[in-house]
Design goal:
The chain is mainly alpha-helical. It has a five-stranded parallel sheet, sandwiched between helices. Helix 13 crosses helix 14. The chain is globular and about 70 Å long. It binds flavin-adenine dinucleotide. The site of flavin-adenine dinucleotide has 28 residues, from helix 9, helix 11, helix 14 and helix 16. Belongs to the DNA photolyase class-1 family. Belongs to the DNA photolyase family. It comes from Marinomonas posidonica (strain CECT 7376 / NCIMB 14433 / IVIA-Po-181).
Length: 464
């Protein structure tokens, strides 16, 4: 072998630039690196690691079919990889290492270290773009990064319209099929295989079905958690079983069928948020170190009430929509976007708990946990972030519930003790109903909690 392709969070054979371009150069092999301690340190959830291993297993099968051999390196942490990959390349006389760029801080450091160790030893590194829809830097006219989404999105669309949207094909078979490489033994991790089968072909089918049937209603239905109106593709995008440009291709196709400009797709705009938060991490590295985007919010004196935090984590706050949402997260590893906003706002504003604890809990449970999107979502909710919710915007969980889960359908799905309640009281049961249903009393009182949060932010103004 001359060319080695190192796959990480890009676990797909189609539209994989590193894999495709390497395959155009000659005979290739694929390398997976397993770094479980590092993943745990990143708080990667059991569900996400479970899906990761499942996708690797399914890739081993597909790659064997294409005659592409697969190798594994197992180390605890990223820091061991430069030596390990170097030794592997020497042993197998590899002259070129190919990989797709990853933007989070630790991943970038890892890749820089691998790059420098290999190039010093005359092994070339080829780095491709796979993870953003618009790979070029999206800068303002002053050549600075955008801090506000709307102008970023406008520029992003401009650049996108100049870009070839066609995703890359899978590599051609390079020999007759090989025996399938089995995954090395590893601790058990489980994810909801019924909801997210570990198979990129199924992920692509889900994408096309979504675009075919639901994309056109997305802008109206996406806020209602009882409806299957969003794509639920985030776990596949997080691990790269689907590439964002494959989503773009499906959007182009669907919009053409419906005779509407692809630029108007509201779903595309959500994918632009994904790009936006990713590029922020690169331009503002302090975001990856637990710092708020707005430094003045460091002066906020967050409360730490462990009993409230426990109740929130377990879905026992006594606010049915919050509890249903947290139980959805705990049971499936995924939570609807509207509910992520409601539960995060509840945590940071009403409980006035430090958003970093909420962020970490989400990460430890989410099957789609991604540093950039999760940090972006939490800082948005806590009003500490870039282009965040204004600080006086404090979601009222009962109003949100009445608006977005009018019939209590979603609540009934995840809080079965409330199933028998009528559509009105299910959003905020009476004391008697709570006792009858063995459902907890609310852990806090909305009005004073809201007022206290706003007062704490108001007090910051003097510090600016
Ligand atoms: P769809 O509505 O179908 O959107 C399509 C894709 O666009 C998603 O799969 C996702 O990749 C991307 N996307 C959508 N909304 C956003 C957004 N606001 N920011 C960034 N990307 C977005 N998303 C994650 O992928 N990982 C996270 O760890 C994560 N944590 C979040 C934490 C909080 C507090 C909040 C408010 C949001 C978070 N999000 C996160 C964003 C969003 O909630 C999820 O991407 C979305 O719910 C996934 O469901 P879907 O695939 O059905 O999304």
């Amino acid at each position: 072998i001359k060319h080695l392709v190192w796959l990480r969070n890009d676990l797909r054979w189609a539209d994989n630039p590193a894999l495709y371009h390497a395959s155009q150069q000659g005979y290739i092999a694929v390398l997976f690196t397993i770094t479980e301690t590092q993943w745990q340190e990143h708080k990667e959830s059991d569900a996400k690691t479970g899906l990761r291993f499942g996708l690797m297993r399914s890739l081993c099968k597909s790659l064997a079919g294409l005659g592409i051999p697969v190798h594994f390196i197992i180390e605890d942490r990223f820091s061991a990889l430069p030596n390990a990959i170097h030794d592997f390349c020497i042993k197998h006389q590899i002259q070129h290492l190919w990989f797709n760029e990853e933007l989070p801080t630790h991943e970038r450091k890892r890749d820089q270290a691998v790059h420098s160790q290999l190039t010093q030893n005359n092994i070339a590194c080829h780095i491709e773009d796979a993870d953003l829809i618009v790979a070029k830097p999206v800068f303002s006219q002053q050549q600075t990064p955008f801090k506000v989404f709307t102008p970023y999105f406008k520029r992003w669309l401009d650049l996108l319209s100049q870009q070839d949207p066609t995703p890359l094909p899978a590599p051609e078979p390079q020999s007759t099929p090989l025996p399938e490489t089995t995954l090395p033994a590893h601790p058990d991790h489980s994810h909801r295989e019924d909801l997210w089968p570990a198979d990129q072909t199924i992920a692509r089918q889900k994408l096309w079905q979504f675009c075919h049937h639901k994309e056109k209603h997305y802008h109206e239905d996406r806020d209602y958690p009882a409806q299957p109106a969003t794509s639920t593709l985030s776990p596949y995008l997080a691990l790269g079983a689907l590439g964002p440009r494959q989503c773009l291709e499906a959007i182009h196709y669907t919009c053409r069928q419906e005779d509407k400009p692809w630029q108007d797709s509201v779903w595309l705009k959500e994918l632009a948020w994904r790009d936006f938060y990713r590029q922020l991490m690169v331009h503002f590295p302090s975001l990856s170190k637990g710092c708020p985007f707005k430094p003045e919010t460091n002066a906020l004196n967050w409360r730490h009430n462990q009993a409230e935090i426990d109740a929130w984590q377990q879905g026992k706050t006594g606010f049915p929509i919050v509890d249903a949402a947290m139980r959805q997260l705990n049971q499936t590893g995924w939570m609807h976007n509207r509910l992520r906003m409601i539960t995060a706002s509840f945590f940071c504003k009403l409980m006035f708990a430090d958003w970093r604890h909420g962020e970490a809990y989400f990460m430890s449970k989410l099957i789609d946990g991604e540093y950039a999107a999760n940090n972006g979502g939490w800082q948005w909710s806590a009003s500490t972030g870039c282009d965040a919710a204004p600080y006086f915007r404090v979601f009222n969980p009962i109003r949100q519930s009445e608006t977005y889960d009018k019939q209590g359908e979603f609540i009934r799905r995840f809080v079965p003790e409330l199933t028998a309640l009528d559509n009105k009281s299910i959003h905020n049961p009476t004391t008697q109903q709570r006792q009858d249903c063995q459902y907890p009393m609310p852990i806090l009182d909305y009005k004073p909690a809201r007022a206290a949060a706003i007062a704490a932010f108001d007090a910051l103004k003097g510090l600016k």
